[in-house]
Amino acid sequence: MRESRRDRQPKTDAHLRAAPVVPVHNPPPPPVVSGSDSAPRRGRGPGVVLGCAPPTEGVPMTAAALQVSELTVGYGPVQALEGVDLEVPEGAVVAVLGGNGAGKTTLMRAVSRTLGFHGGAIRGGSVTFGGRRLDRLPPDKVVAAGVVQVPEGRRVFARMTVADNLRAGGLGARGGRRSAAAALTRVHELFPVLRERAGQPAGLLSGGEQQMLALGRALMGGPRLLLLDEPSLGLAPLMAERIAEAVREINAQGTSVLLVEQNAALALGVAVAAVVLEVGRVTLSGTAAELKGSDEVRHRYLGVVDETAAADAEQAVDASVPALTRWVP
Ligand SMILES: Nc1ncnc2c1ncn2[C@@H]1O[C@H](COP(=O)(O)OP(=O)(O)OP(=O)(O)O)[C@@H](O)[C@H]1O
Ligand SMILES: [Mg+2]
């Protein structure tokens, strides 16, 4: 008897168990997975299974920046998230992978407290940032706490100039003029094109440049945690890689990042850990290296083809398609 596809799958995804969540200090050291034997964990649990090398002497361990626990969200009768657990350690990039409608944007909205603008509401669980509950704050207080979202589709103010878009991002930021000027310098260093195009309407920028502007606008608020919703969406591979590089740079300068992506290869190249969302639930979680090695992630999100399975599928199609007779008018 032929071995079924399921039987042939490597056992890497199979023997998964919970492990304690250990926070990472800034910048994140190479993660060490405790208790999971280099395999991602399946299903819900205490969040990303992420450990780290022992701290250097004198460097204090910091608490998780963002902690999402048992989060359940709905839009009227639609249940979009159910019991989602996720953790972004201080100074880390954590990715959320998943297909269309998995609930990635909903998770972002729940953290930034913008769910209400979309007719959604948190029905259970909690969101804390630096130990403080976010799920009881209005959106402006979430921004003031240092959590800034870059929405899906950039949403730059198309008719306003590039400079005014950046200025808008700095409104309400603490620190006065001097820190606003420092933030602008930092944004221009990261994306020189935004200085060159400062006087032009943002709507004239290319998709990639608009993504840079959206990132720059968020950075003007001096965020401690950036929520990035599909920053590579619709961009050519080179521009997507340029954006990924910018995210690495932003993180290297000390900002934690929650990165939502359908482009799993890009996300796992930037993140230290990731979760996979499917129909509102976390189905896999682990370090980026574990997820890259996961058979399921490779086939479903990294486009790696299981050749034997593809041959099986082809055979099945061949067998089920009836031969057509020639059509004569
Ligand atoms: N404003 C809304 N009102 C009602 N249902 C919504 C609303 N926004 C999202 N949903 C539903 O919630 C679920 C999760 O949607 P969400 O936009 O969070 O998914 P996503 O993972 O971001 O998808 P995509 O990759 O297409 O952006 C889907 O079933 C979607 O139809
Ligand atoms: Mg989305």
Q: Could you give a quick summary of the protein structure above?
A:
The protein has twelve helices and 13 strands. By secondary structure, it is α/β, with parallel strands linked by helices.
Structural write-up:
- The structure is a single chain.
- The chain is globular.
- Among the domains are: 25-63 and 84-101 and 137-146 and 223-311, Rossmann fold (3-Layer(aba) Sandwich), CATH 3.40.50.300; 155-222, no CATH class.
- The protein starts with a helix and ends in a 9-residue tail after the last helix.
- The protein has a 7-stranded mixed β-sheet with strand order 2-13-12-6-11-10-9, sandwiched between helices. The protein has a 4-stranded antiparallel β-sheet with strand order 5-4-7-8, covered by helices on one side.
- Helix content is 33%, strand content 23%.
- With 329 residues, it is an alpha/beta fold.
- The chain has helices at residues 5-8, 104-112, 139-144, 162-170, 176-190, 192-196, 207-219, 237-252, 264-270, 288-293, 295-300, 307-320; strands at 31-32, 41-42, 51-52, 64-75, 78-89, 93-97, 120-129, 132-133, 147-150, 225-229, 256-261, 273-278, 281-287.
- It has 12 helices and 13 strands.
- It binds adenosine-5'-triphosphate and magnesium ion.
- Magnesium ion (MG) is lined by residues 104-105, 152.
- Residues 1-16 have a biased composition (Basic and acidic residues).
- One of its GO terms (molecular function) is ATP hydrolysis activity.
- Keywords: Amino-acid transport, ATP-binding, Nucleotide-binding, Transport.
